[in-house]
Amino acid sequence: MPLLEVKKLSISFIQYDKGSRQREVKAVEELDLSINEGEIVAVVGASGSGKSLLAHAIMGILPANVVMTGDIQYNGKPLDEAELLAYRGKDIALVPQSVSFLDPLIRVGAQLGSSSDTKLQHAERRGLLKRFRLEKTVERLFPFQLSGGMARKVLVSTAALGRARLIIADEPTPGMHSSDVEDALQLFKELAAGGCAVLFITHDIEAAIRIADKVAVLYAGEAVEIAPASDFSGSGEQLRHPYSQALWRALPQNGFKPLLGAQPQASSRKQGCLFSDRCAAATVKCSEERPKPRELRGGMTRCCHAS
Predict the structure, then answer these.
(1) C-alpha–C-alpha distance, residues 222 and 241, integer Å
(2) How far is CA 177 from CA 93, 152, 180, 192, in A?
(3) Going by C-beta distance under 8 Å and a sequence separation of 6 or more, which residues neighbour residue 21?
(4) How far apart are CA 197 and CA 41, in angstroms?
(5) Are 24 and 11 in contact (CB under 8 A)?
(6) Residues in the chain, pLDDT under 70
């Protein structure tokens, strides 16, 4: 049984249009995802594809003007508000994208532990900060005294020290030095090896495939492919969806081929496949019918042409 299972998750924003008239803008549509203990699942995609919304939906911190449907289960039980109160910050930890999640009025050391910590916990905290090349004096600083990269190291450390069963890391490495990125990725691998489930949300496909067991590719709020990380290799011939192949081939070492066009806005939900306007293999059927997710070669795709 997966530790976390997301079934047909849809997220819409209620917005006002022309005075008091409301409209519903769908940002995520029927997203399915699961993760097991000891597994790292990476979620990749362009800005606005729904990656952070997925993280916030799991944590129960979506804004008030949101309508969410679907089912999120943790350890076989619906992850409702009562369950979240019990698990959030303990069993389930978030490494947020924004460093503003750090409390500006509390020193770093206090945010990494508590006055009741044992000597072993103090030593573990110091060892983790040392691993990220943060001096002991950092524990006495307030968040505003940290650089962006230092703040991200603190956020990653906070989640790692919490001994959570599920860590949701939302863009945890931007602003870090390359050596610190390596340390953070290695830390996530060690946590997974110890039985922790890691949901790794990132723009960096290269970082994702270095640590992930499988990769979910999001496009305009849909999971268009879920594939083993090993399928991201060669010229991308093992990948199932044209968008996944285009992302892979856009990397400098894979041909540096740009993908023309832009991801559709959430407010303009088009008929048919959301990627059809940018896809060289698109047919009339693609513009008329929204592809359903289907299993293919050990993964999942939303493409009627994939084989």
Answers:
(1) 12
(2) 24, 11, 5, 23
(3) none
(4) 8
(5) no
(6) 115, 267-269
